Every structure is written in structure tokens, then in C-alpha cells.
TrEMBL record:
HhH-GPD domain boundaries: 42-189
One GO term of the biological process aspect: base-excision repair, AP site formation
Top-rank taxon, per record: Bacteria
Record protein name field: Endonuclease III
Keywords associated with the record: 4Fe-4S, DNA damage, Endonuclease, Glycosidase, Hydrolase, Iron, Iron-sulfur, Metal-binding, Nuclease
SUPFAM superfamilies per record: DNA-glycosylase
Organism in which the protein naturally occurs: Flavobacterium psychrolimnae
Molecular function via GO: 4 iron, 4 sulfur cluster binding; DNA N-glycosylase activity; endonuclease activity; metal ion binding
Length: 214
């Protein structure tokens, strides 16, 4: 059931965006799992574009978990000082590196990832999707939290965990790994705060579009 009490085959209705964005790499410009994990932690409440800009120098200095594990906050600051909450994030990264010690020890389960400092369910879902590990949840980033209620998929919420829970109840597990990122890309490119509805591949099933068309 969706929030309007209709029994809706959302998996079928959302097929056009899954097809459009399937397998597309996350906008963070990472080259391995270590880089992805660091960038995901740094990107909280910051833009992917900013993180892409500042991390090449960081990764030159700290190319893997082993090198990061022996760093300290002061040594990291010059590389990440343009990131929001960089002091807290430096602490998180160092704690992660000291816990993991080596790139091969990066966990690839929701449980293992959320046990690390600075990684919540959204970040864990992103890491697992990019590592092509079968999904245990659905990515619910800021774009998804804005777009999913607008389409009519879930009720309005500012809480990513609540949004994810609603989506997981609504959608079959076989599309979990792609659907969150597909909705996110839709939100980044078409269903923006000022949406470009005529360009949207799923405007025919969208509650918002039905309203504005009258």
C-alpha cells in the first residue's frame, strides 16, 4: 500500500528511472573502496563537487588506510579544512583508520559499516551499492528525501531512516540496490527544487505533476 491507500506496483512504475540510471557511478569521484569510504564521510552536509575538488591532494598524502591510521588531526587539517565540520570529520576518519588498519578490512555489510564512526545507513548503502554488494537497504539521501514524497511514493519526512524504511516496505528487494540512486539522480538532474517536469521519464505516475497539470 502507498500513502494514499492504493495497492500500487511501484516497481513497475519506477522502471523508466531504474533503466535510465542503472549502474551509473556515484558523483563522488573515487577510484577504490578506501577513497569512497573517506569521501562519503567527508561529504556529510557538504557537496560532492567540493569533496571531489579537495580529495586528490588528501589521497596523494594518505593513499590507503595504513597511512591514514598513523596520521593525526593536525596533519589532516590542511587537506580538509575547506570541508564542513572538518574537525569532527578528521576525528571520525582517524578512528575508522585505526579500527580498520588496512583497506582489505573494510566491512561490506550494513552492520559492519554503521559500527564505524561517521557512517550512517545512507553512507553504508552508498558504499555497498558502489561495491556491487547485494543491498540490505535503500539509499535515502537529501534528493531521495525530497523527491520520493513529491512523486507520491512515501509521506513527507526529513528523517532519512524513516524515508528508507517506507521505501523498503514499498519496493521489492531486487531493486533496492539501484532505486535509491536512481531517485537521487532524478532529483539532481530533473526533479530539482524547481522541477523540469516535462523532461521527467516518470511524470505520468507522479502525484505532483498530476496536481500542477490540474
Amino acid at each position: 500500500m502507498d500513502l494514499f491507500g492504493n495497492s500500487t506496483d511501484w516497481a513497475e512504475k519506477l522502471k523508466p528511472i531504474v533503466k535510465k540510471y542503472k549502474g551509473r557511478k556515484h558523483p563522488l569521484d573515487y577510484h577504490n573502496l578506501y577513497q569512497l569510504m573517506v569521501m562519503v564521510v567527508l561529504s556529510a552536509q557538504d557537496s560532492d563537487a567540493n569533496i571531489n575538488k579537495i580529495t586528490p591532494a588528501l589521497f596523494d598524502a594518505y593513499p590507503n588506510m595504513e597511512s591514514l591510521a598513523v596520521a593525526n588531526e593536525e596533519a589532516l587539517f590542511p587537506y580538509i579544512s575547506k570541508v564542513r565540520n572538518f574537525g569532527t570529520k578528521a576525528k571520525w576518519l582517524l578512528e575508522i583508520a585505526k579500527t580498520i588498519q588496512n583497506d582489505v578490512n573494510i566491512p561490506l555489510t550494513i552492520e559492519g559499516l554503521v559500527a564505524l564512526k561517521g557512517i550512517g545507513r545512507k553512507s553504508a548503502n552508498v558504499i555497498m551499492r558502489e561495491a556491487q554488494i547485494p543491498a540490505e537497504g535503500i539509499i535515502a539521501d537529501l534528493h531521495v528525501i525530497r523527491v520520493a514524497p513529491r512523486i507520491g511514493l512515501i509521506s513527507e519526512t526529513k528523517d532519512g531512516i524513516k524515508a528508507e524504511k517506507q521505501l523498503m516496505q514499498l519496493l521489492p528487494k531486487e531493486i533496492w540496490s539501484e532505486i535509491g540512486m536512481a531517485i537521487s539522480f532524478l532529483g539532481r538532474e530533473i526533479c530539482r527544487p524547481q522541477p523540469k517536469c516535462p523532461e521527467c521519464p516518470i511524470n505520468s505516475i507522479c502525484e505532483y505533476y498530476k496536481k500542477i497539470k490540474g
